[in-house]
Amino acid sequence: MTGLLSRYAEAIYWLARYVERSENTARVLDVNETFSRDSQGGQNWASIVALYADAEDFDERYGEATAETVLRFYLLDDQHPGSILSAVRAARENARTLRPLISTEMWVNLNTFFNRMRALRDEDIAEERVARLLAWIKESCQAHTGITEGTFYRDEGWYFYEMGRAIERADQTTRLLDVKYHLLLPSVAAVGSPLDLSQWNAVLRSAAGYHAFRRIHPSGMTVARVADFLLFNRRFPRSVAACVDEVNERLTTLRSRYGLKGGSAALERLDEVRAVLDNEPVERVLAQGLHEFLDWIQLQMSDVGWLIGRDFFGYQAAEPPVLTAAQSQG
Amino acid sequence: MDGPADANLFSGYDPDGYFCELEAASRRSDYGARVRARLTSMDLERLRQRAADAERELYNFGITFTVYSQKDAIDRILPFDVIPRILTAGDWDVIERGVKQRVAALNAFLWDVYHDQKALKDGIVPAELVLGNANYRKEMQGLDVPGGTYVHINGTDLVRDGEGGFQVLEDNARTPSGVSYVVENRHLMQRAFPDLMAGVGIKPVSNYGGKLHDALIEIAPAEVPSPQVVLLSPGTYNSAYFEHIFLAREMGVPLVEGRDLEVDARDRVFMRTIDGLKRVDVIYRRINDDFLDPEVFNKDSMLGTPGLMRAYAKGNVSLANAVGTGVADDKAVYAYLPRLIGYYLSEEPILRNVETHICRESAALSYTLEHLEELVVKPVGEAGGYGITVGPRASEEELEICREQLLADPANYISQPMIRLSVCPTLTDRGIEPRHVDLRPFAVTGRSTWVLPGGLTRVALRRGSLIVNSSQGGGSKDTWVLEG
């Protein structure tokens, strides 16, 4: 018998997702900031807006996509639900709801993080300072993750936290790959050029995967190897396969340890995704379109999240998820 | 000790003839004298720095209440003053006995009101004052609550007059708040001022949650082997949400909202968990009566749970506090409490009431109108210090407005003489100055009554102000009850 309220399970799951989302948005901005210093320059910022499918909202309020406007939109814009400020606010609001369950240290850390985010001004995202700011955001999110690992009581809530984090991370890794592949579609001639390679290098670094990648591929860098690494390498904690395995493992343990009835539909879906991740060679993924494959993964993870919500949080069946205070899709 | 040997924090301090809590405690207790001596030798600038550090800590911990403006929700901390308010063991003995007596009388009165109404028939309290009261709940008539306890958590607002005598200003028998500040203020002082507390015997306050949980278990419906207690909150937008979190954590019980609960066809209460419905036995509710159950009270309430009153009436769930306690802490009924203590308990009141004129009575109205410039006039239905006219401090114009309001609706007002409220030395922009304080001790009642040593000391931070409410510029202090 479990005593965890559905509402809390939902809030924990979304707390984890929002922090993970904040960290990864910072990673995406960071990699793009690196790209934008190259010869293709200013073209790149519009790609971020396309990546998150935010064009309508962005165009209406900002018009031209420059470093300044895009950074403002994704860092400090409190009207934009996809901004890091909004995500940290949402994480902190969920943490406020969850204060009876989470450790005081988790709360103080998030509350302080949010208070500092809220105090940021336009000058803090100026070009010469933004790299440091993004590094600070990543570190703050990682501090949260570490404090959570070290202090959060390991009851049912923990499993929802871990599932939320892994689902979000899988989704975000696909977006990070997409920044490069979908949005900077290189001309055939450019593939393998120094510019192309330096961009793949930046993608790996922003996913904190460069050194791990070098350990298995001491020299050379190809699209296939980078995509293979970020999609299928189970030893790399940000790879899609590692994240999907983690969701599967947490959900299985949660069900058996607490004798829960729900979750079987989500497990079935995870099995399908894992079968693809196990058997699909990267060459075929690239041949059939990396972007389409990434899209498919995103849809599957969205469905898994929805099925978990239906079985444990009380989302109504046969309806799309309702956006509540606990969640909004970025 | 801090600062140079000749520094004296209190060299400019003058209580101006008011009863000073710190001076009194230092005269009457060795511990009190020791604390005063330590404070005296502190350096003002260091003290300011330490106070600023302490306030930042409150903000980071989110020990805040929320103020809503049209545009934004602002988290404010309750301003905290670092100089403690000190009560001697002798002071506490009077308060503790007096509060227990008062809670016993409130519970006896409520049982009577919702059963035989003897006190009304015997003319101790005017029947229309009770039965016509907006907080009287006819649904409670004839309903037996466990152990006869209606008021499980009570806050008694006390002031201290010019001679140092304690007087009751009002009772809070619905959902009194502020206890979280009592415990958190202590924790903050322990972290920030260990040098001030070392070797001083102070009664602990950290066991409040345990005592409250014990009492809630005691009032559970009979034959439940291990009762499930929950705390019912209006949610994160409530200004007291921090306190709800605090109490749920201290008790280790789920903090639920109305939407987490449901009542089944057999009138049993359940909460929605990740594995379906789980039975609930005791609810510490921090929602007012009106919003508790839309089937019975406010139809538009989104905060409560439909059917809760059905379950309550059947004895399937216990509520703390009981429904309908507002009829006992009404500002007009308050005036009759000393008589009710005699009527139910055959005792003399240990804590006096502030002399109160009930303006619904014509003699009291005439007296109030004649002495308006000496009296404090309060609307009976308002909380938070709103609508009060302090005669001796009011302008001619303000007195005239007050007079018109009194004549238009006399039953809505009481008047009391202005009390020369006691003061505490308090850190201000001008250095250490006297500021007026009150005290809200908290009493917890299951089968018996326990009083948390000390209580919430609220301090009017504005110079000369007598109004201590947080909405009116009030702050709080840690309250120390000395062991000797």
From TrEMBL, chain A:
Residue intervals of the DUF403 domain: 4-313
Identify the Pfam families for this entry: Alpha-E (PF04168)
**Know the name of this protein?**
Uncharacterized conserved protein, Alpha-E superfamily
Name the source organism. Answer: Tistlia consotensis USBA 355
The upper taxonomy is: Bacteria, Pseudomonadati, Pseudomonadota, Alphaproteobacteria, Rhodospirillales
From TrEMBL, chain B:
All residue ranges annotated as the Circularly permuted ATP-grasp type domain in the record: 84-460
Q: What is this protein called?
A: Uncharacterized conserved protein, circularly permuted ATPgrasp superfamily
Entries under Gene3D superfamilies matching the protein: 3.30.1490.270, 3.40.50.11290
InterPro entries for this protein: ATP-dep_Glu-Cys_Ligase-2 (IPR051680), CP_ATPgrasp_2 (IPR025841), UCP005522 (IPR016450)
Task: Note one Pfam family from the annotation.
Answer: CP_ATPgrasp_2
